[in-house]
Amino acid sequence: MKHLLARNRHLVQRIGFTSITMMAFATVFPIVATVIYILIKGGPAISLEFLTGFPHDGMRAGGILPAIIGTVYLTLGTAVFSVPLGIAAAIYLSEYAADTPLTRTIRIAIINLAGIPSVVYGLFGLGLFVLFLNFGTSILAASLTLSIMTLPVIISTAEESLRAVPQAFRTVSISLGATRWQTIQRIVLKEALPGILTGVILGLERAAGETAPILFTGAAFFLPRLPGSPFDATMALPYHLFVISTQVPEMPIKIQYGTALVLLVFVLTMNLIATIIRSRARAKRQW
Amino acid sequence: MNKIVIEDLSLQYSDGTESLRGVSLGIRQNAVTVLFGPAGGGKSTLLRCLNRLNDLTEVKASSGKILIDGENILDPKVDVIALRRKVGMVFARPVVLPLSIRENLTYGLELAGERRRVKLDEAVERSLRLAALYEEVKDRLDDPAIALSGGQQQRLCLARSLVLQPEVILLDEPTSGLDPISTGKVESALQELKQDYTIILVPHSIQQAARTADFAAFFLQGELIEFGEGKSLFTTPKEKRTEDYITGRFG
Q1: What is the distance between the alpha carbons of residues A145 and A125, in angstroms, rounded to a whole number?
Q2: What are B182-196's pLDDT values in tens digits?
Q3: What structural domains and CATH numbers belong to chain A?
């Protein structure tokens, strides 16, 4: 009887272990499958004309250049607002703010900001930037909306990276006659930079792939020319994909998958850059 | 001559830990003054008062005066940056900044506004020689400081505080992580340095206290129990508690 129980326990452990392993693989499968599927379906669409041309024949032929450029503009625009603001907020929270009810409230607000559905950001952007501030449906309004959505990611990863810098560095720097700000500039930021950059890229990557926040604030269905100023609306990859997948009848499926592939490559490249920065910094880190 | 005069200094941390109670003490110029006693006695707290590093910690209350050259450095109007250039500090664990050996040394000087390459190079060499490290690192000043051994790192930290040509050097158990040979090098460097500096040392052992002290102060639970010349204090202590501690009856 005792012997049987022992064997039983062994079996239970093996079953448990195997199922955990299978679940781990199960999480990888959808990612790999998606990439391969889109690569196969969209690969044939990729050509020089597709990447550098304008859409024509009611977007059923031609290229997606305006959408690519538009996404680049929106990503850069988002960076312009969210990166300085996010890093400044993180420095304040990590280096200056004491633990008071006020800073606790700020932290809770940031965490909650990350949980808001992206379409709500879109509506907020419509109300504030497009209508109230009268920026119109524009790159500016869309970038600001995406910035608000990106900020929590940048702030929390940057704050984490700043806090990871050993306290002893700060003490030593102060004891050598540095002010707090000099210490932050010369030592803390330098050490936290790779972590901050990783957070920035991951945040921007999310912004680049979002549709809902730009839907009402800056995305155009079709534009015959590239946007000329921040006050112009723009085409963008994710929205373009949505449009040609649902709004255009008799759309060649090849172009849909080709567009998806370009968006995927755009986002994965940013991800790759973040990974490289992170692993390089980890190898170089001296503490 | 007394470089530093501490008058009735009391201090309490916000979390109620280690504190000082009514400490009065004169610290002689060009001598090594040792602050010793069991952990939690207030030695490090006192050191950190002397360059106002305690400003970074949450202090509940403090009273009393610390006069350096007659000026009360606890006065809120005191320029703490200037004070910290005048009162250098070496910590228990050698903390080199994540910079090169040279940059570690020039850090404080550049912050103080020195830009001239010649001056910086001079200062680097002078301070490294004082800390008895020059010969070992002269060919690799631009290597990361972290690549040095523990003992070299601690001498680099000493050199780094010397670069600013301070008048007072505070050392908080500077040899606690070092092997006996490195410890010996640091101790003999201190004997050289006291010609020009006022040195206050929290030793990591009673033996080190006895070896290095010109003057010694015994601290117990935030109070100064006994103060006197090193020679007499370690051989013929006046206080029973000092004797008990030195002879190893507690601690």
Answers
A1: 5
A2: 888 889 888 988 999
A3: 63-236 (1.10.3720.10)
Give residue-wise pLDDT tens across range B179-235. 888 888 889 888 988 999 999 999 988 889 999 999 999 999 889 999 999 888 888
| A128 class by beta-carbon count within 10 Å (0-12 exposed, 13-18 middle, 19+ buried) | middle
Closest by alpha carbon to B164, among A249, A215, A175? A175
Q: Which member of A177, A179, A191 has the closest CB to residue B108?
A: A177
Q: Least CB-CB distance to B97: which of A177, A182, A187?
A: A187
Q: Which amino acid is at B36?
A: F
Q: Is A269 on the interface with B (CB under 8 A)?
A: no
Is B97–A172 a contact, with Cβ atoms under 8 angstroms apart?
A: yes
Q: Which residues of A touch B98 (CB under 8 A)?
A: 169, 187, 190-191, 286-287
Question: Domain B2-246 adopts which CATH fold?
Answer: Rossmann fold (3.40.50)
Pairwise CA distance, residues B119 & A259, whole Å: 61
pLDDT in tens, A85-123: 999 999 999 988 888 888 888 888 888 888 888 899 988
